[in-house]
Give the backbone structure.
Amino acid sequence: MPITTDTPATRDALARLNNDAINSMDNEGNCTVKVSDLSTLLAAYKIELNKARSLKKSLSETSEV
């Protein structure tokens, strides 16, 4: 069963990350974000990378046949 990462919860976490980063940025470019929001984004990114790898592998196996 495929995992969907483009969900309202993921989009909300991404919006919070963006807002927190912009609103807490200091003069040196440092910012503060919630760990749970960052973890959500990183997990979704890893899932999408694995989907892309699987698709690329499937396509290369198909073209070899």
